[in-house]
């Protein structure tokens, strides 16, 4: 659990957008993976005057939150005291109600994927954010198998942070890390991830490098039980809502003739070959970070578009 350059960039941009960090909670006592050069960059961006000794890398990120982001109250929550957390609580269990609506910012940077009861842990984070506050989740996408219990998809968070649960996603960014250790940095560009419900397709990726998700969500209404109704994957929700309305279209022309005349065993083999070639082609087009309908390249500095393009839902362009 720690703050990398990528995490800090998202947090600094939020501060520049006017997001408050006055009362901040982190999941786990966050280590710092920021270099002196990176700290200097953020100090310049935020126009904060900090003593030179705070520009020297420290073991933990406390000074970054207080001196750079302006946190006057900084707490950390963990199931164990081994890293000096200020609040001991097992996120598998509901947090006490007095913790609800307590923080301007709740930040997960590498904890939720290690908590078995993930829906309860995520709901706990959502409860503890005050209305108008932000929940930041910096977590694993592809190619982190074995790092924790889980690795996550954009669909999960777009459906979890919705108006039905009292949240809205302001920004979801995908980054490819050079190595499994996110602290060693990422490749450029980064990508703004489009909501699967907007493009009406599954936003999927097959890639070789570790892929991370950086999410900023705003709380618009408090729900004591955010998942009183469990989220449904968007493509299934559309299919089920249209059940009984759509008539199944029968194949016509040559396809219809072939289906009626060819033996089932041969049709199965043909379908297998078609599926193979479709998936092989789609790996480098549809299921790729090169798919501009799903992933919009953005520059890490300020999270601005690399080149003009359609404005994806869930990311607000800064002036």
How would you describe this structure to a colleague?
The chain has 319 residues and is of the alpha/beta class. It contains nine helices and twelve strands. The chain has a ten-stranded mixed sheet, with helices on both faces. Strands 1-3 form a two-stranded parallel sheet. The protein is globular and about 80 Å long.
Describe the structure concisely for a colleague.
The protein has 319 residues and is an alpha/beta fold.
Low-confidence stretches: 308-319
Q: Any idea what the radius of gyration is?
A: 22 Å
Alpha-beta content class: alpha/beta
Mean pLDDT: 89
Sum up the overall morphology in one term. globular
Largest sheet: 10 strands, mixed
Helical content class: 25-40%
- Count of DSSP strands: 12
Strand-residue fraction?
Answer: 15-25%
Topology as H/E string?
EHEEHHEEEHEHEEHEHHHEE
Biggest sheet, spatial arrangement of strands: 5-4-2-6-7-10-8-9-11-12
* CA-CA gap between termini: 33 Å
Number of helices: 9
SSE inventory with pairings:
Layout: E1 2-3, H1 5-16, E2 23-27, E3 31-32, H2 36-46, H3 62-68, E4 73-78, E5 87-88, E6 103-109, H4 118-128, E7 129-140, H5 154-160, E8 167-176, E9 190-193, H6 196-199, E10 211-219, H7 234-241, H8 253-261, H9 264-282, E11 295-299, E12 304-305
Parallel strand pairs: 1-3, 2-4, 2-6, 4-5, 6-7
Antiparallel strand pairs: 7-10, 8-9, 8-10, 9-11, 11-12
Helix pairs in contact: 1-2
